[in-house]
Each structure stands twice: as C-alpha cells, then as structure tokens.
Amino acid sequence: MTGPLFQAHHLSRGFRLPGGRRLMAVDDVSFRLHQGETLALVGESGSGKTTLGRMVVGLTAPQSGSLTFAGSAIRAPRREVQMVFQDSAAALNPRHSIGESVMVPLVWALGLRRPAAEAQARALLDRVGLAADHFFARLPHELSGGQRQRVGIARALAPNPSVLVADEPVSALDVSVRAQILLLFRELRDERGLAALFITHDLGVVRSVAQRVLVLYRGQVVEQGPVAAVMDRPRHPYSQALRAATPVPNPDRQRPPVPRPPDLGDLPGCAFRARCPGAHAACAVPPTLRAVGGDHDVACHLAA
Ligand SMILES: Nc1ncnc2c1ncn2[C@@H]1O[C@H](COP(=O)(O)OP(=O)(O)OP(=O)(O)O)[C@@H](O)[C@H]1O
Ligand SMILES: [Mg+2]
Asked: Is the pLDDT of residue 257 over 70?
C-alpha cells in the first residue's frame, strides 16, 4: 500500500458543560499516519488530546468526521488500532494478575485458546522487559509506575495492532524510567512497523519519538509539520510559547510556564487571540490552516 495507513478526516467532538454551554473538545482535526511513522500530538492540559486519541481507537464517537484504516472507512473499535492509556494504573483491573490482563485481548481479539494465550502473554511480558516467570502472577498494585506502563504497552500490543495511540505514556514517570520506556516504545515501533499517535504535553520528548508533530490548541490544529521544522522554527505564537515553556536541562535557565488560557467564553475569531502577543484586527476572523512550505501548515494570520 502506498497511501497513508490511517487517516482522520475533520474529526469533531463537543461536550455539554454544566449550565448548558457546549465545549468543542476537538474541532475539525485531520491527520494522516503512514506505516512506521509517529505523529506527536502536543498541547496543554484540556486541549483535546485524549478525546482525539479515544476517537481514533473508537472509544469515543465523533460528532462529525470520519476515520479510514488501510483505505476503508472504520467506525467501531478495531483490533488493528490500539491504545496505551494515560493512567496505566486505572486501566488495569486491580484483581487480575498482570498475566491475566495481557491474556484478555489475546483471547477476545485474536480468539486464542488459554494455553496459547498464556504462552503469548508470557512472550509479550518478556519483550516489554517484565520477566514473565517473575511478573505473570503479580497484581497491579505490586508493580511500580514504570512496570505498570510496560504492562499497558504489552496489553495494547497483544492484538497485534498496526496503529498505536500512546496517551502520555511517560508523563507520570521519573526521568530515568521515562527514558527506558521511550526506548522500548521506539524499539517496538521499529520492530513491528507500527504507525503511532504519540500524545504528550512535553515537547521535550517529541524529538526522540516522532517524525511529525501536530499542535492542538483548544481542540483545533494550530500547526503541523515535520518535527525539525515545527520544533526549530515554530510559526504559530502558541507553538512558540509551548517551546519557550519546555523545561531545559539546566534548572538555572528554567523557563516560565505557558500562561493559562482565560475562560472559554471570550473573543470571536482566532481561538488564541486573547493570549496572543501579536493579536491585531485581522484576528477577529478565524484563521484557516494553510501551507507554509515543506509539508508544514499553520493557522495564523501573522505566520510568514
Ligand atoms: N466526557 C466528557 N464530558 C465533558 N467534558 C469532557 C469529557 N471529556 C473531556 N472533556 C473536556 O474536553 C476538554 C478536552 O479534554 P481532554 O481530556 O481531551 O484533554 P487533554 O488534552 O487530554 O488534557 P490532559 O493533558 O489534561 O490529559 C477538556 O476541557 C475536558 O474537560
Ligand atoms: Mg489527556
């Protein structure tokens, strides 16, 4: 197949807030994933990353828009599209041994009988760095955060997917453990030729995992393009602010956090207008995503 393996076309999803207001958590988002490619999805808390990820794997129904896998439209959850969840502890049944948790998708999605499922679950645990002889019968609470995240990865890989959504898989982990899990993620992606949507609010990890980046602000794509272009020369003022807020190794040079957005009911036009240092009259009209060269798109009236 020469085209993209997976495509999201104009996905939108709103939620009704207490008081009747409606929040567009994801607003007209499109992207493509080629086999073996990782797209990093970045944006601050509440920007719609998890909602988009859940729509990709079929756990949240889009309000509008569609998904294509290998050229065909898909609606319901698919074996080929799996997710590593943001909260690895909550995603595991506390009463199931981790071996049992990894066996469940092998039995249900692949239809394996228990002896074959157990053998495969053991092989998967070994592969993610959890010696099966030691870990198979353990309960989730006996594991560290990094070990639980390894279980989450094994479980997502069990149905042998070709597309993986990884929702902040390292955010809750210590720096040293984080590096190990990122390495495992890259190895597994390369071994299996997985296409991946890697969700993170930490720009620091983007370069080490992804080829392309999509920046979300309040559910909208404000910028997308190759990692080098977006990270080295972000064009959108929000991407620039995100990059400026990325922690640097030397704590003396620690950068300020991106200021929190004001409440949602605000100015018409560009969603970033109220926070934008360069906002001017033209920003009363919502900008559309436009190409700026090199497969790089920006939604900003100011971006050159
Ligand atoms: N089931 C729901 N009902 C109502 N509002 C929701 C629901 N799920 C998400 N939201 C709202 O949609 C917005 C986007 O949430 P989402 O969890 O997708 O953001 P996120 O980018 O993953 O944030 P974080 O970085 O904190 O994980 C938020 O304002 C959130 O409160
Ligand atoms: Mg989230």
From this structure: no
pLDDT of residue 264: 45
Question: What is the distance in A from the centroid of ligand 2 to the CA of 149?
Answer: 16
Q: Is residue 174 part of a domain?
A: yes
For the chain, what is the mean pLDDT?
A: 90
**In the chain, how many domains are there?**
1
Distance between CA 35 and CA 6 in Å, rounded? Answer: 8
Question: Between the CA of residue 208 and those of 98, 153, 179, 182, 213, what are the distances in Å?
Answer: 29, 18, 10, 8, 12
Quote the domain boundaries for residue 248.
6-80+161-298
User: Residue 112: inside a domain, yes or no?
Assistant: no
Q: Give the separation between CA 102 and CA 111, rounded to whole angstroms.
A: 13
Q: Which long-range contacts (CB under 8 A, 24 or more apart) does 120-123 make?
A: 120/158, 121/154, 121/158
Nearest protein CA to atom 1 of ligand 1, as residue = 15
Any idea what the CATH number is for the domain that residue 58 is in? 3.40.50.300
Instruction: State which ligand 1 atom lies nearest to the alpha carbon of 86.
Output: 27
Q: Whose CA is nearest to atom 17 of ligand 1?
A: 50
State phi, psi for 17 to the nearest 5 degrees.
-95, 160
Residue whose CA is at the smallest distance from ligand 1 atom 25: 45
What is the residue with the minimal CA distance to atom 16 of ligand 1? 48
105: CA distance to ligand 2 center in Å?
23
Residue 214 Cα, ligand 1 centroid: separation in angstroms?
A: 17
Is position 303 within any domain? no
In a domain, 133, yes or no: no
Query: What are the C-alpha distances in Å from 89 to residues 49, 108, 139, 164, 182?
Result: 19, 21, 11, 19, 18
Distance 45 CA to ligand 2 centre (A): 7
pLDDT (tens digit per residue) in 127-179: 999 999 999 999 999 999 999 999 999 999 999 999 999 999 888 888 888 89
pLDDT in tens, 208-224: 999 999 999 999 999 99
